[in-house]
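haha ok so turns out i had the wrong file open the whole time. this is the CORRECT one, sorry everyone. sequence first:
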Amino acid sequence: MPHYLGELLLYWCPSCNLPVLGKTCACGLSTKKIEVTPPGDIRPAFPYDINLINSTTEKQFGLKLIPEGHLVVLNKAPYEDRMDEVIFDGAIMGSIRFELEKMDWVFIPRLEGARRLVNGTKCIVIDKGAVNFIMKGASVLAPGVNEANPGIVEEDEVIILTPEHEVIATGRARMSAQRMLTHEKGMAVKTRWHDKPRALEQQQPTEQAKTWDDAVQANIHILRTREEKAHSFIKNVVETQKRPVTVSYSGGKDSLVTLLLVRDTSTEFDILFADTGLEFTETVENVKQTAKELSLPLKIHSSGDSFWQSIDNFGPPTVEARWCCKVCKLGAITQVIEQNYENGCLTFIGQRKYESQIRANSEHIWKNPSVGNQIGATPIQNWTALHVWLYLFWKKAKYNPLYEEGFDRIGCWLCPSASMADFSRLSQIHPELSEKLEKYLKSYASRNGLSDEWVKYGFWRWQALPKSIGMIAQKLGINIVPKNEKKPAQFTLTAGYRPCKAGGITAEGSFGTPLNLSLIEESGFMTLIGETNSIDGVILVSQNENNVHVYASGTVVARGGNEDEARELVQLAQISIRRAVLCTGCGVCVGKCAVRAVSVNGTARISEKCTRCGKCTWSCPVVKFR
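then structure:
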């Protein structure tokens, strides 16, 4: 469904044959609005993208869609995987999308694109009596087909022509050409796009090839206005916040533009980079090279191998439970801030509202809920991706080379929010990473009674498949329900709740396995409950009149004044024990502590300064996702 996150800003100058982000081109002429599908986050098509589109249309229709010398923009549209609208010569030519069932790219032509492919294969000529019905949106019935390319098979994208060979519709075949021509009953083509016949619009000749420098000049008045507003915003925020200034640079295009904008307005600031341990090598190199070329201090914290050390505890990350963000990213940025800025910092972040609903609803300035000592601000909240790209082209910035390799977003290479199109491309340019992930996922699938197809089609990316994805799994007969999933260590009540002779109510529970009491005590996590002591293989925790005993055997006994108090204590005890045993040292808890009672040295430690507010507990990935 269309999802509006901001104003749709793509226009086209018919005179210059260039994309423009406003109603007037720099040449002085009015532009034509392009009705793209929301959210309308337009980006340039690089040579790789153009080659992919042309090879796809050539495979399907026998012809290349995009002629040389034309600038092409892409608009990511809502779809179950990845789909981009292809736009040039002032029109949407169609969409290229990655279809999970085929695990391949397919081009879906619109009428303007069909007119450029009409001399190729996959065309159907209909009877004169059916023309008016098809132009109004009716599907093509087999008795109305006069001619059909013999290569057409069921599920092919086809172009529908009048007896005069004029394009009036496009759609997907519901039967083969052979069956269509037998004039049997039934639907031959389910139409998608339809209209009256129209001549092909004149294309620009090759000798007048356009470049992205031309597009920058066509939009220069818009870019300068955006730049001026961003500079004013940055100056005002710096003056009012009175904190050390930093820029969060991820190696992506948005944070690079933000970095350049801050560089032009602030003389002293640091670059922050949270190395999740799951970054592309190209990204890490770009970050370091950018800091070096701009002569700016670079503060890095690497999460190292934290992801692979944690995955057996949490299972593969999913869209619903991206524990990896906390373990590998938020913890890293929290620690780099904690180690370098005693009173926190102001961080400019390349966030834009066109990226997601959450970001669309975000303020321009905010206090990071996950990193307690950081104020975030974005000077490009209202920019589209095309604003960003044109600005980078204008400034001749050295952006991450992965953008020219088929990736429209740069982040962790195994993010569950990535499309299968991205994972397919990953296997081509970084087979070693793809093989590492696939090896683990297949092992996980085998242990849990799932097939290799569960891995192949990317069903691991969700705990509960979206409806459209679930239908594909059902159609292909792929089981998505784990049968033998290895359960985490259980904490069970061994004696329920019973009156205690010493007074109060006692709750007794057990992990069913011995505990490392030294590790638990050294972590200080039991301090969150009360005063802690260790005597003869038992950890004693006192909270007013109540107490908890933790035994090396794995048994935990909590005593409270009533059943609710006992239940709460035993739950807090088992959570604190889990945190101590499973801590990865991600550092998320550090930013939640207002009194600086939490530190990280390999794993987290809580000191006697703890006020027992509990904020670090409920932010911990072990608690949240385990």
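The longest strand covers residues 91-99.
again sry for the mixup
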